[in-house]
Design goal:
Elements lengths: L27 H10 L7 E9 L2 E8 L4 E5 L4 E8 L2 E5 L2 E5 L4 E4 L5 E5 L3 E8 L5
Antiparallel strand pairs: 1-2, 2-9, 3-8, 4-7, 4-9, 5-6, 5-8
Length: about 130
């Protein structure tokens, strides 16, 4: 998922199998509740890959207030769609104040970092170039 995975990657579960079939329906409220019940949540964050293709991922991430995701970058384009809470994102000298319903898109190889100002949940979408 990232070019330079940090220590938080040790808490991530293996990716699920690629999605099979023409559609997938997800109850995000139920998924967020499940993230909060799992042991990694006690460390301040938890994540689950909801959709997985070779060139496309959607990851649901939950962060406790004060939790940070250190600066990193991704080979693919990404979007961060805030579902709940309040997150501050920093990318290339800009600060973005994300609140529920906000969407931030970043181009390939854009260094960025996140800080949860409140308990938060967001969808991270990743699209990789040239993957078949």
């Amino acid at each position: 998922m990232t070019e330079n995975p940090g220590p938080e990657s040790a808490h991530r579960r293996p990716h699920s199998a690629p999605m099979v079939g023409p559609y997938l329906e997800v109850d995000l409220g139920r998924e967020i509740g499940q993230l909060h019940r799992e042991s990694p949540w006690q460390g301040g964050q938890n994540a689950r890959t909801l959709v997985k293709f070779d060139d496309f991922r959607i990851v649901l991430t939950a962060l406790k207030a004060g939790e940070r995701i250190a600066q990193h970058q991704n080979r693919g384009r990404i979007s961060i769609h805030l579902l709940s809470g309040h997150i501050r994102a920093n990318a290339r000298g800009r600060t973005f104040d994300l609140r529920p319903g906000s969407l931030l898109a970043l181009d390939r190889d854009t260094p960025h970092e996140l800080e949860a100002l409140e308990e938060s949940a967001f969808l991270l979408t990743i699209a990789w170039p040239g993957a078949a």
